[in-house]
Specification:
With 192 residues, the protein is α+β, with helices and mostly antiparallel strands. Helices cover 31% and strands 25% of the residues. The chain has a 5-stranded antiparallel β-sheet, with helices on one face. The relative contact order is 0.17.
């Protein structure tokens, strides 16, 4: 017997992204992002979404899916949303696998470095919830010589507001709370 899946759509700041929220269940235990069919080898749902010619990236999080479409030569969300949403609903209602063991989640592993752990704690408490609310994620990448580098995932990837988010939100918060940090960058968007 299949289950009835309830989904709703949320717009996000990135016009090339859409967030589809599962109202009655959990999709995955942690965030996963897929940029190609090869990367989605262990996620049948992400593979199906990436087979749409206009889908560039798929991010699966606890109760939502963020889909990024190609910025150029792609149909509008209005033209494709029904097809995408229907495919997701059919996949979930037929109890097909979402992800298999062996898939690599977005790396947010622990470190022995005290500064790195403090940064990750601040990200988890103050930055990531807001990014996830908008269908994205901002994750620690590296820290050296006062420069903190983050990676942007989901709807945050190539978002037209990424520079503004980093310069008026993320960097001031992190530099104020941790004087060791002098500058914050984000590699996925080449945000400085």
């Amino acid at each position: 017997m299949s289950r009835k899946v309830q989904l709703h759509i949320e717009g996000v700041p990135n016009p090339d992204a859409i967030k589809i929220v599962l109202e009655n269940g959990i999709l995955v235990d942690k965030p996963y992002e897929f940029k190609s069919l090869a990367e989605a080898e262990f996620s049948p749902l992400a593979r199906r979404l990436l087979m749409f010619r206009y889908v560039q990236r798929v991010m699966l999080n606890q109760n939502y899916i963020t889909i990024l479409k190609e910025p150029k030569n792609s149909p509008s969300w209005q033209d494709i949303l029904f097809e995408v949403r229907s495919m997701i609903q059919q996949h979930l209602e037929s109890d097909q696998p979402i992800i298999y063991i062996g898939s690599q989640g977005i790396d947010h592993s622990r470190s022995d470095d005290v500064i790195v752990e403090m940064v990750r704690d601040l990200l988890d408490k103050h930055i990531r919830p807001a990014a996830q609310e908008d269908g994205g994620d901002i994750v620690f990448d590296s820290y050296a010589n006062g420069v903190l580098n983050l990676t942007m995932h989901g709807a945050c990837h190539k978002c037209p507001y990424a520079n503004q988010t980093m310069k008026t939100g993320v960097e001031p918060l992190l530099t104020q709370m941790m004087p060791e940090i002098r500058k914050v960058t984000a590699t996925a968007n080449n945000v400085i």
